[in-house]
Specification:
Strand order of the largest sheet: 6-7-8-3-9-10
Helix content: 25-40%
Strand content: 15-25%
Number of strands: 10
Number of domains: 1
Structural class: alpha/beta
CATH topology: Rossmann fold
Shape: globular
Radius of gyration: 18 Å
Number of helices: 9
CATH architecture: 3-Layer(aba) Sandwich
CATH class: Alpha Beta
CATH superfamily: P-loop containing nucleotide triphosphate hydrolases
């Protein structure tokens, strides 16, 4: 039996009605650790991720979380508990602290400093113009902003794709720290090296369907060449 905090997709189609990107998806996504969504471009990874906090709704079937259909959650309530960060983080005009207050309008400086330190940023950045941050700093600031709602789940859509190696490592480390602290992290990646560093669970998508689900050692032993390629099997 799956955890009540897990996401469950039952008979889900998603995307345009005349050509769904996801088709007949039956899937349980664990509510702990780092789950990496893998597979070739166009497989439906980002589409699946967007369903989990109702940035998109399925055209057929049902998505459930905490034993409730997502349609019973208001999008605002859901997104405070199921936060999302993107490949290119949305940075608003103004200072870092003003960007943080988009998520928490009453945020005081003590808590703002604490959340920055939690994502590995120095508190001295609070008054810096957010648009002057480096790519890695901007991504971590956006994770800090997401954390201000105390989410149970963090969705990450290729959050390191536009970063250099050093910044990528810092964001990966942050994802690991969050997962170890009890936040379920669901992470889309095309990078098999990153997948192998981070994944506690892996879901391989191909052609809009689920090709495989499991731990790395299980998928490394798959007799499906696409699955082995998608996880960078040795």
């Amino acid at each position: 039996m799956s955890s009540p905090d897990a996401f469950e997709l039952v008979g889900v189609d998603a995307g345009p009605a005349d050509g769904p990107i996801l088709r007949s998806i039956d899937l349980v996504i664990p509510a702990n650790g780092v789950t990496v969504l893998a597979g070739p471009s166009g497989a439906g990874k980002s589409t699946l991720l967007r369903l989990l906090n109702r940035l998109d709704d399925p055209i057929a079937g049902e998505v459930r979380w905490r034993d409730r259909p997502l349609t019973e959650w208001s999008p605002t309530e859901l997104r405070r508990q199921v936060a999302m960060v993107f490949q290119r983080p949305p940075i608003f005009p103004g200072s870092v602290v003003e960007n943080l207050r988009v998520a928490s309008p009453d945020l005081d400086r003590d808590r703002a400093e604490h959340v920055l330190e939690h994502v590995g940023l120095d508190a001295s950045l609070l008054d810096q113009e957010a648009e002057t941050l480096s790519g890695g700093e901007g991504q971590r600031m956006c994770v800090a902003r997401a954390l201000l709602t105390d989410p149970a789940v963090l969705l990450a859509d290729e959050p390191t794709a536009a970063l250099d190696r050093s910044a990528r490592a810092r964001v990966e480390d942050l994802g690991r720290v969050l997962a170890d602290s009890g936040v379920a992290v669901i992470w889309v990646s095309h990078d098999t090296d990153q997948l192998r560093r981070m994944a506690d669970h892996v879901i391989v998508l191909a052609g809009g369907t689920v090709r495989a689900v499991g731990h790395l050692d299980e998928l490394d032993a798959s007799d499906d060449p696409l699955v082995r390629q998608s996880v960078g099997a040795p």
